[in-house]
Amino acid sequence: MALTGLQIQKLLPKTNCKECGSNTCLAFAMKLAAKKAELSECPDASEEAKRILGAAAEPPVRGISLGPDRALKLGEETVLYRHEKTFVNQTALAVNISDADSPDAINATLTCVKDYRLERVGELLTIDMVSVTQAGSDVAAFAALAKKAFEQTAKPLVLRSTDPAALAEAAAVVKGSGSLLCSATKGIAKPLVDVAKESGHALAVSAPNLDELAALAAEIKAGGFNDLVLDLQTFSPAERFQTSSIARAAALKAGCKPLGYPTVCFISASNPVDDAVAAANEIAKYGSVCVLPTFDPAALATLMTLRLNIYTDPQKPIQVEPKVYPVGEPTRESPVFVTTNFSLTYFIVSGEIENSGISAWLVVPECEGMSVLTAWAAGKFSGASIGKFCKEIELDRQVDSRRIVIPGYVAQISGELEENMPGWDILVGPQEAADLESFIKAKVA
Ligand code: SF4
Asked: Residue 334 in contact with residue 358, Cβ under 8 Å?
């Protein structure tokens, strides 16, 4: 748990020597508590202070890295609610295949998983993992399926079986893939920990309730293995929501280390809509790996968009680079539009211009990723700032058109923009981007 400034001060030398750049040890402690300084800046910090502050600085939910290159990060969360700060590592989405599926169905799913791409606000979204479930009892067939899934997709796997021997064999054939073995219960934990250690995979642990789960995780950690993921045993969306929330709150608010691990969930509702709702619940509260039962592009598009919204840092809006963007294949005479560099705004406006069937230039000045009204209120989207930007990029030399369309919400800047862009006609566009198409057809095209 995070320490307060006063708690940290008690660990410092209390000589007020100023070597760290602060006037007093208390002032330095306050900076440490606010994460605006590093303990290494105090040359006299004791070993005990380093140990205690080092442990306190660890995120309450342990970070786990998966994948052959360890690029898929789970956990490291520090807040219960996104608006407190930000969520750190987004829920990894996996699609399940099983040794009971037909070879054609398996090949089709693996191809879909490998090729899936969804572009949204400039971000390329892909499926993170493949889950391989053992439904039968053929150990060799399960291992062969795991091998095939990894070779075909190069994605880390979720290997799921109740048979430790099957998990051991599958884990060995995809050694180095940085996968997740599911799941160790009390009776089979010891051999599975050895398998996970030997093959470099993470291990999910499972128990009937949170007390037993915490005890099992603590026991495995005490034995020297800490790449753990929690597989909560729940039987309804309501129970899942409640149990996940209790586990996360225990880790974050009560410092319960044995529950401070990422989680995995296998979605298995009775129909596609309930599956999507259960997966949305995982993305919102607090799933780290969410295994979808089938490849369903409609559900994936919804879930990926939800995930993008929840895991975007609210303090750092997604931005596009400030510059002039061609929409379609504009010529020097094509009309010019202006909007802000908030990604969502940019993509909506450029999409609506494209929908109208014309080609145009879209001027996007630096607005710190704010939307139109917010940027205007903050003084970042004024007639003066837009005019200055157009001068800097030499818009006059790039286009022969002398008419620029501004968003209807900032009609009040048209006079100021006219002063700052002599020779240009300022046309006030609609307030909503959705009305751009009809506006363009009536007044621009
Ligand atoms: Fe205190 Fe260390 Fe800073 Fe000196 S360098 S004032 S001992 S915190």
From this structure: yes
